[in-house]
Amino acid sequence: MQLRPPPRHGDRTVVRLRGELGASKAPRVRRRLLRAFARAPSVMEVDLGKVTYLAPEVRGLLLAAAALARRSGMRFVISRASPLSLRVLDELGMRRLTDAPLPSP
Length: 105
Description:
Shape: globular
Radius of gyration: 13 Å
Number of strands: 3
Structural class: alpha/beta
Number of helices: 3
Strand order of the largest sheet: 1-2-3
Strand content: 25-35%
Distance between the termini: 27 Å
Helix content: 25-40%
Order of helices and strands: EHEHEH
């Protein structure tokens, strides 16, 4: 994901995702994440409370977003993830990239 965010001006931006996020949904998720970065928040939160499936392409986007947030000085938080999503994200090493601890799956 290539992006240079503008200077931060907002406090928190929440990206709420839901449903089965298969490979075909990856472009939509990417656009939503890019729009959230364009707001240049100090905290970027991704709410996975209604997600039932995370395709590898979407997992990669979440990792890239977390890494970009870290490089940009933003805090990156995953909220309301299901036990299955937490396990998948934990296996990917997302705990190292988030600024709020992921609960144990």
